[in-house]
Each structure stands twice: as C-alpha cells, then as structure tokens.
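Sharing a chain and its predicted structure for anyone who wants a worked example. Both blocks are below, sequence first, tokens second.
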Amino acid sequence: MSPLKRRKFMKYATTSGLGIALSNTTILGSSLNYPENVRIGIIGMDTSHSVAFTKYINGQENGFEVIAAYTTVSKDIPASYDRVDKFTLQMKESGIQIVDSIKQLLGLVDCILLETNDGRLHLEQAEEVFQSGKPVFIDKPVAASLKDAVLIYEAAKKHNVVTFSTSGTRFMTQAQKVRNGSIGKVLGADTFSPVKYIPSHSDLYWYGMHGVEHLFTVMRTGCIKVRRIKTDTCDTVVGEWDNGRIGTFRGIVDGSGGHGGHGGQAFGSDEIAYLGRWEGYEPLVDSILHYFRTNEVPVEPSETLEIYAFMEAAKVSSERNGEWVTLDSVLSF
C-alpha cells in the first residue's frame, strides 16, 4: 500500500467499489434490467473525443449506441469556443439528438460520457449525473484543480456511484504489458508527452496529464515527493516513489522537438521496455464500455487522485524554484 493510501489521502480515495460492482446500485450488467441496446448520452461537444468516440461506438454492433448529446461552451478557452460549432454539426450529421439540458439527456439514456472540454465544469455536471445513479465516465482532466477532483469522488461516494477518469495513454499496449509484469518489477520509468498550459487549469492538468498517466500506469501508486525543472524548451518532473524508485515525466513544450507524441521507457528487474507510441482511442473506449456493462473500473480513484496530486506538487515545486514537494503537502486544503 502506498504512503498516500496509508495517510490522509485515504480519506479522499476510499470511494465505494474501487473496481468492484456495487450490489445495491442501479448499473449495467447481465443480471440487471437494462435494454439489450444500451443508450449512451454525451455531455460536451467542444472536444474531438465526442465525435471520435461516437463514430467508434456507433460503427460497431456491440449493444451500445450514442443517441443524444448536450453541450456548453467556455468563452475563455479557445479550444472550446473555436471548435464547438464544428463538432456539434458533425454530431447532428451523425444522427445524434441535441438536447437542451443534462436533465433532458438523463431521461433519454442509460449511461454518460462526460466529455466537456473545461474541467472547471465537471464537478457540477458530474454531480447531476451521480444524483441519477447512472454510470459516467469523466474524460480528462477529471477537474481543473485537485480540490475539485477530490470533491468529484466524494460526490460519487455520496450517491453510491462508481466512476472513473483516465487518459487513453493508460491503454497503450506496451504500458499495459509492463504494468502486468512483462519486465518483472518496475524499478523506474521515463515518459514524455506534449504540454500545453492555460490559465483556467492547474498547469499540467490540461495536457501534460497524458504523459503523467502513462508514468503511473507502469509505476503504479506510491509516489512520495516530486521536484520540477521548467525551461522554455522542456518541462521535467522527477518523482521519488517508495523503495527509492524514480519516475520522470518530460513535457515537450510547443516548438521543441516538433509536435512530439506520447512514449517512454520502463526499467524492470528483468529487462528494459520501450513504451511505444500513441495507438488511438479504441482501447480506452472499449474499457469504458466494459465499465458500463459491469461497473468495474480500470483505474481506482486512489490512483487517479495520486496522479493529480503529483501534478499539483509539481506546480508548487516550480513556484519554489525546483524544491522537493511532498504529495501530502498539497492535500492540506
């Protein structure tokens, strides 16, 4: 058990279920009274994920169908207001019903993909879904701040709903093999991804979290402290895990090394593994559909919250000129 789980972090991470189906929650499953064709609703059409996920899900005969969507727009985030009209039109052209409220959406569907681009809106939107008892996947970032991320999981626990949030980098083939023991015990890892910063979100939350999620996929939980070195061309966070293991995340800043990508390497007790490149959304969507059917999540709340605590501690380290910052210290709100 990691240091964070043993200490006060456990207070926020013990969401009911942790990947095990709740016996008294209305969820999808073979013994429950849901229609054979499971209806999915989307909250948020200001991201390409909404279009890509819908195309993949509706292009298969697997018992799932995206049928309706609701969106808002964030006027201070260009990635939201510059793209929402285009993506909304593409959803309409795909036959998706556009509704006027989350309440209306919940009346039409069995489960929710929360895809809103702006993490600041996720707490309010997720809580409305939790109140309905319907399962919901929350796309990255789970929230715009660590405090809101904690509040989301507390709200899920309050309403007896199991939820999860993750980046698609978690499901890259080689990362999953390493997590499952292909190179023996993981002694350390280095990952990289592009980084983008926007004022409305704690800095690595907006895009750097892809590479951080990749790092935690192979290292698992147990990070104690981090330090960060940030320049005009590189943003590097070094984390010390339990038993002296070291994991690093390198953020590729715009203009350095082209557009970069996602990848890295892991150092095991048996061998060293290259963690591969981005392989597409399909494995992520498959894991979401499995969750909708079974209520089993592929990543526990405790691990997700440790990822966000890692990034928050990195932010504090940057403000302190690269000092070591413990993950515990950023949870004192």
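Comments welcome. The radius of gyration is 19 Å.
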